[in-house]
């Protein structure tokens, strides 16, 4: 992720954020799908995790650039705050949804706590994340294409008196 992110930021600045964001999230979703359907092969797992890191490295800077461009220059602090708040809420919801998917799979299994049922719970949670990632990739591709019209912002501090 750290190796790709600087290049992805340059690509987003030069060609727009839509393609790197949607391609990156699509790659991450595909990597999650590989984890759902793969065997327990260490090399397949390592390759899928590496692909997911590359995908997120493409997505994150492009998404940040897209969100920053959605606001006006005088709103940069507010836009950044909303982005970080949304990321935090999304992370919290992701953990909760993953736990629900894992628990449901374990509850529906015949012998809760067995390795097979636990593996099913993991696969269900990762499958949910793959579907959410694919949805995010589509939304990134279909998202806003132009910057909003310039609106004059505050010129500076108010005049005393």
Could you give a quick summary of the protein structure above?
The chain is an all-alpha fold and 161 residues long. 75% of the residues lie in helices and 0% in strands. The chain starts with a helix and ends in a 19-residue tail after the last helix.
Describe the structure.
The chain has 161 residues and is mainly alpha-helical. The protein has one domain (5-142). The chain is 75% helix and 0% strand. The chain contains five helices and no strands. It has helices at residues 5-15, 18-37, 42-70, 76-108, 115-142. Helix 2 runs antiparallel to helix 5 (115-142). The protein is elongated. The N and C termini lie far apart (53 Å).
Question: What is the assembly state of the chains in this entry?
Answer: single chain
Percent range of helical residues? over 70%
Number of strands: 0
Question: What distance lies between the first and last C-alpha atoms, to the nearest angstrom?
Answer: 53 Å
């Amino acid at each position: 992720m750290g190796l790709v992110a600087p290049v992805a930021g340059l690509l987003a600045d030069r060609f727009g954020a839509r393609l790197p964001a949607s391609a990156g999230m699509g790659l991450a979703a595909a990597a999650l799908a590989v984890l759902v359907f793969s065997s327990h092969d260490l090399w397949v797992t390592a390759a899928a995790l590496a692909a997911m890191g590359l995908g997120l490295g493409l997505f994150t800077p492009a998404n940040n650039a897209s969100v920053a461009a959605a606001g006006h220059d005088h709103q940069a602090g507010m836009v950044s705050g909303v982005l970080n708040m949304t990321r935090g809420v999304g992370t919290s919801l992701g953990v909760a949804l993953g736990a629900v998917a894992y628990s449901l799979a374990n509850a529906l299994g015949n012998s809760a706590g067995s390795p097979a049922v636990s593996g099913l719970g993991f696969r269900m949670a990762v499958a949910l994340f793959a579907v959410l990632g694919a949805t995010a990739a589509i939304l990134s591709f279909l998202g806003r294409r132009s910057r909003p019209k310039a609106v004059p912002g505050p010129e500076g501090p108010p005049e005393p008196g």
